[in-house]
Amino acid sequence: MRQIIIILVTATMLLGWGKTGHRVIGIIAEENLSPKAKAEITKLFGHSDLARIANWADEIKSDPAWKHANDWHYCTVLEGQEYRGPDDGGRAVQKITEFTDFLKKGMLDEKDQKDVLRFIVHIVGDLHQPLHVGNGTDKGGNELKVTWFRDETNLHSVWDSKMVDHMQYSYSEYAQQIQLGLTAERKAELLDPNILSFVHASRAVHAQVYDIGDGKLSWRYIYKNGELMEDRLLKAGFHLAAILNDIFG
After folding, report:
1. How many domains are contained in the chain?
2. Which of 134, 156, 143, 172 lies closest to 15 in space, CA to CA?
3. Where are the alpha helices (DSSP H) in the chain?
4. Fewer CB near the terminus (10 Å): N or C of the chain?
5. Does the global pTM surpass 0.85?
6. Are 116 and 99 in contact (CB under 8 A)?
7. What CATH code is carried by the domain that includes residue 13?
8. Domain of 57?
9. Pairing of strands 75-76, 133-134
10. Angstrom distance (rounded) from CA 136 to CA 128
């Protein structure tokens, strides 16, 4: 059955949110799983700790056997367009859709179930990092060189990890912090399984994300984008929970 999920492709390797960000998303999602989804995930893994499995899809990038999955971490929405499909670049949307269908239909053996579930947990998080919904011109900000507190880097790396790590929270502390004050009604509103809604939301904030002035980024960039970053992390957790709740009923 493994051949079902293997498509040979080549692509630039992109990381998303870094380890802390993906774990933040995982813990928020876990806290908002339905009892049925939590039970099914526990049956499969022996636990329902999504933070524990959230970074697996990045960790396996060093394994040549998973080279074909390099372009599962992002998608592309060209300027002035809505999402049109993987031909524009990146298969993240396609893979979430496929893997969700596989799990709903019970098409996979236990090992492949674990693999595709790990990918769903990770890729949903990736697509909430605005630069994982690329514009097709700069490899998701990887080619846009900037400095971060005088250290040379690129804009993609700033959004993947540098802003999150700058907050110096543990992932559990940060997950708690960005959920403060959420009402039950607001939580219910955030449980949206529609993939394209959050893809287009990531693309819609590009003007703010790319507003980098002279490219010397530090406190001012954090001040302008900290709330946006936390909003994307928060919504990623709830959207992931919604997708998993939908899969497992």
Report:
1. 1
2. 156
3. 18-31, 35-45, 50-53, 56-59, 92-105, 110-126, 155-157, 163-166, 171-178, 184-190, 195-204, 206-209, 219-248
4. C
5. yes
6. yes
7. 1.10.575.10
8. 2-248
9. parallel
10. 17
